[in-house]
Write a structure and sequence with these properties.
By secondary structure, this protein is α/β, with parallel strands linked by helices. The chain contains 16 helices and 24 strands. It folds into 3 domains: 93 residues, 3-Layer(aba) Sandwich (Udp-n-acetylmuramoylalanyl-d-glutamate--2,6- Diaminopimelate Ligase, Chain: A, domain 1), CATH 3.40.1390.10; 223 residues, 3-Layer(aba) Sandwich (UDP-N-acetylmuramoyl-L-alanine:D-glutamate ligase), CATH 3.40.1190.10; 149 residues, Alpha-Beta Complex (Protein-Tyrosine Phosphatase, Chain A).
Length: 483
């Protein structure tokens, strides 16, 4: 594509050099640059892409988008913009011929429930005969191809490239998780969402956003990019967002008056049954996922699809077709007389939702194995300790993804919350050893929750990332091929 066509929608301060060059690829990582590329100088948290522009040119970049002047050879076109991240998002949309304008695009944001809501939404759309791609925390699904996810929301060039690949595969809809980081960093700017979905907002990512208000404002940006909005009005932040959305909002909830709601709830260890009430119709849904929080996830998916004009019968069959979500309150086949569930819960609200549900399911002891991630909001550590202690009969406090922090220091910050509840606890720093302790000490009717990593198959340590698949570990401990 010609450079001037790629940058036509950008706020450009000035251009030095020819805008008529052929561009074969977009890059923001100088290590990945290929000949004929347009390179974006992105300012990161620890490095500045402007410092790597010359490296990009040496590898074949023929044009550079920058916020400040940098010395480059005369044959390189330089395009100066106020914000290279915003510029990259709009340029990526143009480079891939604006695929989101053709796709039925549904974006889901919120602290908890994004992954489950996207899987449920995709199931509904597929029941309606609409081939649907998925982008999110667990994996990116394009047709028959499942691509492991590096981050919840990809950078703009990868995101728009996936949208284009979906269209090329005959896919006509996409459902994606939209993280607060991606919204704050303009990754989805230029995308046209048919429906934006808000699940809930609880304390998380304050290490990045600084304040809860900043976190909420970042999430709310999605709805300025959306034709319609499905909003959880049982959530205080949802009420604030819906006032801004005005007449394009579809409210959903249980506790308060909402356009779309659930009642006649019956929760069990096998799943959840409820009556789903839509404008003009209502019907029973037998959801294969348990827990009140999954009723909200089902409502979010139903509301998004109703806003997208999907028939009620497809909403019902799509919800009922989902039996499990990887790493989300996932029951393992252990062959034992106790139960093991793994879950991605790594926030206070997420952990409380899981443990409240587990407490209602447990016939014996509730054992909770958990930790907290390093280089993340430290204020939630003691809170999570107290939540785990309040619901559990035994807490096993261990390491999660410690990153650059010392695992035992993270554990020390968790423990005051556990101690305050009087719950019995064990500290086992090594997560594999902690899992082994839990499995070997499981008794008849115990329910063991292994929280924090869910679908992840790795652990992030100070100087490396190691393979760490909890399902494989548990299978090995039990002498089974798989669980």
């Amino acid at each position: 594509m010609i450079l001037k066509d790629i940058v036509k929608d950008l706020e450009i301060l000035r251009i030095e050099g020819s805008p008529d060059k052929d561009i074969d690829a977009l890059h923001y990582d100088s290590r990945q640059v290929t000949p004929g590329s347009l390179f974006f100088c992105i300012k990161g948290l620890t490095s500045d892409g402007h410092d790597f522009a010359r490296m990009a040119v040496d590898k074949g970049a023929v044009a550079v988008v920058a916020e400040k002047d940098i010395p480059l050879p005369d044959h390189v076109t330089k395009i100066f913009v106020p914000n290279t991240r915003i510029a990259m998002s709009y340029a990526a949309c143009n480079f891939y011929n604006r695929p989101s304008e053709t796709l039925l695009l549904i974006g889901v944001t919120g602290t908890n429930g994004k992954t489950t809501t996207t899987y449920l939404t995709r199931s509904i759309l597929e029941q309606a005969g609409i081939r649907t791609g998925l982008i999110g925390t667990i994996a990116n699904i394009v047709g028959d191809q499942t691509i492991p996810a590096v981050r919840t929301t990809p950078e703009a060039p990868e995101l728009q490239g996936m949208f284009r690949a979906m269209l090329d595969e005959g896919i006509r809809a996409a459902v994606m998780e939209v993280s607060s980081h991606s919204l704050e960093l303009y990754k989805v700017d230029g995308s046209k969402f048919d429906v934006g979905v808000f699940t809930n907002l609880t304390r998380d990512h304050l290490d990045f956003h600084g304040t809860f208000d900043n976190y909420r404002r970042a999430k709310a940006r999605l709805f300025g990019l959306s034709r319609a909005a499905a909003i959880n009005t049982d959530d205080e932040s949802g009420m604030a967002i819906i006032r801004e959305c005005k007449d394009k909002a579809y409210s959903y909830g249980i506790r308060k008056s909402a356009l779309i709601y659930a009642d006649e709830l019956d929760l069990s260890s096998e799943g959840t049954e409820f009556r789903l009430c839509l404008p003009g119709s209502s019907f029973k849904v037998r959801l294969g996922l348990t827990g009140m929080f999954n009723v909200y996830n089902a409502l979010a998916a139903a509301s998004a699809c109703f806003a997208a004009n999907i028939a009620p019968e497809c909403i019902k069959s799509g919800l009922e077709a989902v039996r499990r979500i990887p790493g989300r309150l996932e029951r393992l086949d252990t062959g034992t007389d106790f139960t093991v569930l793994i879950d991605y819960a790594h926030t206070p609200d997420g952990l409380e939702n899981v443990l409240r549900t587990a407490r209602g399911l447990s016939r014996g002891r509730l054992i909770t194995l958990f930790g907290c991630g390093g280089d993340r909001d430290k204020s939630k550590r003691e809170v999570m300790g107290e939540i785990a202690g309040r619901y559990s009969d035994l807490c096993i406090v261990t390491s999660d993804n410690p990153r650059s922090e010392e695992p035992m220091e993270i554990i020390r910050q968790i423990l005051p919350g556990v101690v305050r509840t009087g719950c019995a606890y064990e500290v086992i720093e090594n997560r594999r050893d902690a899992i082994e302790f839990a499995i070997k000490n499981g008794r008849k009717d115990d329910l063991i929750i292994i929280a924090g990593k869910g679908h992840e198959t790795y652990q992030i340590l100070k100087d490396k990332i190691i393979s760490f698949d909890e399902k494989e570990i548990i299978a090995s401990l039990l002498g089974r091929e798989k669980v």
